[in-house]
Specification:
The complex is a heterodimer of chains A (699) and B (262). Chain A has 699 residues and is of the alpha+beta class. Helix content of chain A is 33%, strand content 22%. In chain A, a hairpin with a 5-residue loop joins strand 11 and strand 12. The longest helix of chain A has 20 residues. The N terminus of chain A is likely disordered. Chain B is α/β, with parallel strands linked by helices and 262 residues long. Chain B is built from nine helices and ten strands. Classes of the chains: A alpha+beta (699), B alpha/beta (262).
């Protein structure tokens, strides 16, 4: 895998695969996935071959043929018949600016060029074009069955090839394709258009797709490509990042953002841990979506973020039932969620040591309840969507707050405790009074109280008071003398092992040391206490970031791919941006360099989102507050400038930061207020520029 | 017809060597043939070969030279040697065995005295420690060719230890599935072996599997010398394995497509 660097702008926007190795092919397929938020298609070679794992997925359409509920594969549409012989050499390039994958290769008779994309302007449309010497490449079947049977059926409607896969859970994915071959001098040009539809509840009808495919073919490839370029240009106008002086981070951030921007669409979107690029993690939805991905989309594609929330809102009844089953009030979301909002976390797993271990997150990672609420609050802060806050958002905040209120156990001193939980650090558990869970629950209670006090639809007064009282009673493990939070009750009494002294991080400490030894030590998997400083800094004690960073960082193994970017963000906030770069670059390259060994199964959505959060929340210090965009940059010496584009309360905003100043421009003068250096300013037609001096820790 | 060549000495340790040769000959649809380099009347060698029903060829000369030449015959697909004469004896294996195996460009099965060998037609469970390196891939290709279309059950064993401990292990209920699926596709394509992960040193992990009676053969890729580095694992396993050890040369083999191409 190579990524062009240097001063060529195109180079900073292209991910290129120049060598074909069967053992690497599945990684490359994941990296070259094209998606439109509803359907994802892996970047498989048109001829298939050794190592290929072609796959089409539809967001939210699951099947239960596997032991686990997992995403249903759809009909494949990228196959071509290499009649004259297999292509050799060449390269494949994903152009992040346009979402088009271009392939160039050699054939016995000459050169091959293919182009493909998932239409951002028309979700549910996929397009393929191939050019090669006449007769060297034939279209072959426009649609093919996936490797898993998946109830595949196919047929013809005139010249239109249709196909459908069906789920045992009732849903399905259907496709209709048309293709034509035209002569272009000595070459043949093959054009294929595909209309896709998916439904999680019933197999889609083919008729409307046949009609759609006919219309697409009439529109023509060139017109569809022009739409694609326009659609992506519009997306990047509201989301682009530029990191001057650091091509590694710049390309990594754009790559991460590209796949995030293409990860969700529609009214409701189920975004699994590996997005639409693979079936890793069974397509299950984790806190990765709410805490990591949702804020990114809230700031760049608010409607897509709203679709992620809709997924949770439609599963609120299931969450209420789960709470009730435990004798609790409100709503309890599952740790892993799929089609119907029930808990789908496997109960056990075999550890590399050979031991079969219970998966404790299934029953104890209750922080997911507050995580869902936090994601919703981020959407509200970035979008200013008052209708959401007054309507479904209010119900969500209220239900999650009610859960915590009923979950707290009070001791004889009236202090509140949350017992037998697992926090983000999954090396320890179940534990009592995990700081992350308790503080997030406290935030959730207070947020719920705010909401019910304002909502006429909810019986507010009594609940708000009770919830604020409960919030105040919750212990949080904070020690004023040391200014540290104890990660959970008894944590400070564990073996004070510093992982940095045992191995180079990141490292899966539970595999290195064994589960029991790790659990008996202070080694942690990922940011836990520190996650509070990232998500809810206002809920943490003033001046406590650095003491907690200095204490927990040497104990953090980063055995979770979610961790490095968060630490990078916090190091920046602590005034150590240069120290943050190593972890940020690691996160940027995690999938590009297949650092986990599992990118073949799909891209790591949370890591990608963490990169954006590190840049925006960390280095730029850009945070939505109530109606105000706060900016407090801390840039590493290696960067000459950082520019980010976001959408704040429906208004596109460009923020450019260098070592001397902050410049804010907006397309809608007078609509955006910015807080910098303690003062609030309204950004006018000419933008706004603030002189800036490097600052130390803000907390 | 292809052959499985059993190199036997003039001792009761010849019995498990002969039994292993017969078992693998049936497995590989080959003929089992034994060879003994005479140093005397060879009565025990003759008796053991007759008891197992494997034809015996008696040869004269320097044992290592004779056995190397016999192993180099194009018809021989597998050599079978005894590790040592007695349970407590040369470690990791006898001089003749190591010398012959170190130059063979085909797999050599080293059988410890007292090894329990199944009967012809029994299923054979082979554990293949694999560190994910290209060198091991080359040697493992021998095993894949040898075992294709046979009744051998292959389990890849990957030991997370030292340098191979993964950097990330997110959700264990999914990570192992994702990791092993990709590992198999990269290192044992076109088949679906079981995968066993271990979090201790590879030699120890392989021996543990054998002691737990989870395999009948340990297949090791080796560089055909017992110096430092990965050879430490080969020495350890050869010395202490209660089951036969199949040595797979890391380099390509003579007389095969792979060997011809290298």
């Amino acid at each position: 895998m190579s990524a062009d660097r240097g001063s060529d702008e195109a180079a900073g926007w292209c991910v290129q695969v120049t060598d074909h190795r069967p053992e690497r092919e599945r990684v490359d397929e994941a990296l070259l996935t094209v998606a439109d938020g509803r359907f994802g298609t892996r970047g498989s070679l048109e001829e298939g071959g050794p190592g290929a794992d072609p796959l089409v997925l539809a967001a939210g359409v699951y099947d239960d043929r596997d032991p686990l509920v997992t995403l249903l594969p759809g009909p494949l549409w990228t196959g071509l018949d290499m009649a004259s012989g297999a292509p050799v050499g060449g390269r494949r390039v994903l152009d992040l600016r346009t979402g088009v994958v271009v392939r160039e290769a050699g054939l016995p008779a000459g050169g091959l060029r293919t182009e493909r994309f998932a239409a951002a302007a028309r979700p549910g449309v996929a397009v393929l074009k191939a050019q090669a010497p006449a007769g060297a490449v034939r279209p072959g079947p426009a649609l093919q069955a996936p490797a898993d049977d998946a109830g595949y059926t196919a047929g013809w409607a005139g010249e239109c090839h249709w196909a459908r896969t069906t789920s045992r859970l009732g849903g399905g994915i259907a496709a209709a394709a048309l293709q034509r071959t035209v002569a272009a001098g000595p070459d043949d040009v093959i054009e294929r258009v595909v209309a896709l539809q998916a439904d999680p509840h019933r197999p889609p009808s083919v008729g409307p797709l046949v009609e759609a495919a006919t219309g697409l073919m009439a529109r023509g490839y060139d017109a569809l490509l022009a739409e694609q370029r326009t659609a992506w240009a519009r997306r990047w106008a509201h989301a682009a990042v530029t990191v001057e002086g650091d091509p590694v981070v710049e390309l990594g951030a754009r790559f991460a953002l590209f796949h995030l921007l293409a990860s969700a669409d529609g009214i409701e979107a189920a975004l699994g841990a590996r997005g639409l690029s693979g079936r890793g993690y069974a397509g299950h939805v984790f806190w990765d979506t709410d805490v990591f991905a949702l804020p990114v989309l809230a700031a760049t594609r608010p409607r897509a973020a709203r679709a992620l929330l809709e997924y949770r809102l439609r599963r609120l009844p299931a969450a209420r039932a789960a709470a009730a089953a435990r004798g609790l009030e409100g709503a309890r979301f599952p740790w892993e969620s799929a089609h119907d909002g029930s808990e789908v976390t496997p109960a056990t797993a075999r550890h590399p040591s050979g031991a079969v271990l219970p998966i404790l997150t299934r029953d104890h990672a209750e922080h997911i309840v507050a995580d869902v609420a936090w994601g919703a609050s981020q959407y509200a802060l970035w979008s200013g969507d008052e209708a959401f806050l007054a309507g479904p958002g209010a119900e969500l905040f209220s239900a999650t707050a009610a859960y915590w209120a009923s979950r707290i156990r009070y001791d004889r001193h009236g202090r509140g405790h949350l017992e037998a939980v697992v926090g983000p650090d999954e090396y320890h558990g179940p534990v009592d009074d995990n700081a992350y869970t308790n503080v997030m629950a406290r935030w959730n209670l207070r947020r719920g109280a705010d909401v019910v006090e304002r909502s006429a639809a909810l019986d507010g007064r009594g609940s708000a008071t009770r919830w604020r009282t409960a919030a105040a009673a919750l212990v949080d493990g904070y020690d004023t003398a040391s200014r540290r939070y104890e990660q959970f009750a008894g944590y400070f009494g564990l073996e004070p092992l510093l992982i940095e002294e045992l191995a180079s991080v990141p490292v899966a400490a539970d595999v290195l040391l064994g589960v029991e030894r790790t659990a008996a030590s202070q080694v942690i998997k990922q940011a836990d206490v520190l996650m509070l400083h990232h998500l809810v800094p206002d809920e943490t004690a003033a001046g406590s970031l650095i003491p907690n960073l200095d204490f927990y960082a040497p104990r953090t193994a980063h055995g979770s791919s979610l961790s490095p970017a968060i630490h990078a963000a916090l190091l920046a906030r602590a005034g150590r941006p240069d120290e943050a770069l190593g972890l940020l670059r690691l996160a940027c390259r995690l999938d590009l360099d297949d650092l986990t060994g599992t990118t073949a199964g799909g891209l790591h959505i949370a890591t990608s989102a963490g990169v954006w959060q590190a840049l925006v929340y960390g280095f730029a210090g850009l945070r939505p507050r109530r109606g105000v965009l706060e900016v407090a940059p801390v840039l590493p010496q290696a960067w000459s400038a950082l520019e980010v584009r976001v959408v704040f309360h429906g208004t596109p905003v460009t923020v450019r930061l260098d070592h001397d100043a902050v410049a804010v421009e907006t397309e809608d003068p007078g609509r955006v207020r910015v807080r910098h250096g303690g003062a609030v300013h309204t950004v006018g037609g000419a933008g706004r520029r603030f002189a800036h001096t490097p600052k130390g820790a803000r907390a | 017809m292809t052959t499985v060549l059993a190199a036997i000495d003039n001792s009761p340790a010849a019995r498990p060597v002969l039994l292993a040769a017969r078992l693998f000959a049936v497995l590989l649809d080959a003929a089992a043939v034994a060879i003994h380099v005479r140093g005397g009347p060879a009565r025990t060698a003759r008796a053991e070969a007759a008891a197992v029903g494997v034809p015996l060829r008696l040869a004269d000369g320097v044992p290592v030279d004779v056995l190397r030449a016999a192993l180099a015959d194009a018809a021989v697909v597998l050599g079978v040697f005894g590790a040592r004469r007695h349970l407590v004896g040369a470690r990791p294996a006898g001089h003749t065995t190591l010398a012959a195996a170190s130059t063979a460009r085909k797999p050599v099965l080293v059988v410890p005295p007292g090894a329990r060998i199944g009967a012809p037609g029994d299923r054979v469970r082979v554990i293949v420690p694999h560190d994910g390196s290209p060198e091991t891939d080359r040697g493992a290709a021998h095993a894949r060719r040898l075992f294709q279309a046979t009744a051998v059950e292959v389990t890849l064993l990957h030991a997370f230890a030292g340098e191979t401990v993964p950097r990330f292990w997110d959700e264990p209920q999914h990570e192992a599935v994702a990791w092993t699926r990709e590992f198999v596709r990269r290192h044992w394509p076109a088949a679906v072996p079981a995968v066993r992960l271990a979090s201790r040193a590879p030699g120890s992990a392989a021996l543990g599997a054998a002691e737990a009676q989870a395999c009948d053969v340990i297949a090791l890729v080796w560089g055909q010398e017992l110096g430092a580095g990965r050879a430490r694992v080969v020495r350890e396993v050869l010395a202490d394995a209660p089951v036969p050890v199949l040595l797979l040369p890391m380099a390509g083999s003579a007389g095969t497509a792979e060997g011809a191409g290298r």
